[in-house]
Amino acid sequence: MDRIVIGIEALMPSLMAMGLNLMIAVATLIIGWWVSAIFGRWVQRAAQRTSRIDITVIPMFQSVVVWSIRVFTVVAVLARFGVQTASIIAVLGAAGLAIGLALQGTLQNIAAGIMLLMLRPVRAGEYVALSSGSEGTVQEVGLFLTKLVQGDGIHLTLPNSTVWSATITNFSRNPTRRVDIPVSIRYGDDLDAALTKL
Q1: Cβ 171 vs Cβ 137: under 8 Å
Q2: Does the pLDDT of residue 1 top 60, yes or no?
Q3: What is the distance between the alpha carbons of residues 1 and 99, in angstroms, rounded to a whole number?
Q4: Do 80 and 54 touch, CB atoms closer than 8 A?
Q5: From the centroid of its chain, how far is CA 178?
Q6: How far is the C-alpha of 111 from the C-alpha of 46, rounded, in Å?
Q7: What is the pTM of this model?
């Protein structure tokens, strides 16, 4: 019995250190998630206040900020438990390569989304028509998807690669546009009188 008590007393400092590490790790994780949400909302509000930032970029920029802080938080928590972060980064790199090969279509959508945001052939609030037959008002260009709202109120979600590879007709980019209205006139009618009635 004395040996058990002595063994428990010998384990107490390591158990206390492990419990303290666990509490700090959980607190770090909770605070990191909370800070990432706060920074995400702050970035969104700050970007919406200025007219120099296109509103199309805001959702993607917000998600990049939020997930960067969360990844840093997870790495900090793992480092708290003595896990070598260099090996984690190497494993993440190898896993990223494998996932990248498996998700080529998804990565293609991400690359297309970045190109759409950099070159800006479409912006939020513009009415566009694609050569694929889809058309509507651009609501958002996200990391993977572009959201359109059609004239009848139906929401249309397209992969970014589909939008990027299509021919885009943008009806809202220029403030003025020419509208052609065909009018039929018989051979015997007076052209001048028809023009004055238009």
Answers
A1: no
A2: no
A3: 54
A4: no
A5: 35
A6: 26
A7: 0.51
